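[agent] plan:
  1. take the single chain provided in the ticket
  2. run structure prediction with default settings
  3. attach structure tokens to the ticket
  4. add a short note for the reviewer (M.T.)
[agent] executing step 1
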Amino acid sequence: CLDLNASSAMNLCSFASFDIRYYSDTEKAVSGKTFREEMKGNLNYCLRYCEDFHLPQNGILMVGGTGLGKTHLSLAVGNEIINKGYSVIYGSAPNLFRIVEKEHFDSTVQSDTIQLLQECDLLIIDDLGAEFESKFYLSVLYNLLNTRMNAGKPVIINTNFTLSELQNRYVGRISSR
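[agent] step 2 finished; step 3 output follows
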């Protein structure tokens, strides 16, 4: 787990460093709330998620444009869950899938990253949709989501895609999970 998390900014992100003053208190989101109210709600949801974290647990899907704080909140959740004694792996979809692909097709590699990704208590996949489109990656994603769902192990997924874009890009059996 430590090798996979080594390049993440997990130790730099916390709930204390998440500043909702960054978000407009005048501009309205689609919900009719201000962006600041929306992000305060998201922050509070993540805080409650950590407070009540146990296994089995549901995951979180964070959807929105670049620079809105999805990664920061995900990493803050990851830190809190680690502090509770659980194992957490964080990585971007392109990097995680590339590692799994290399291990799958290169017989000289002796790691089993897919097993680590399946078995850790919380998996955080950042930037889903930024990976190269391939049947292999779709298979890896389905395998990860399905295995973890059946084991009651949560995944936090961040994406810049809308829900309809996710449904269009990923087959039904993936988007339904």
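[agent] step 4 note for reviewer: The helical segments are 2-5, 35-51, 70-83, 93-105, 113-119, 135-151, 163-169, 172-175.
[agent] ticket updated
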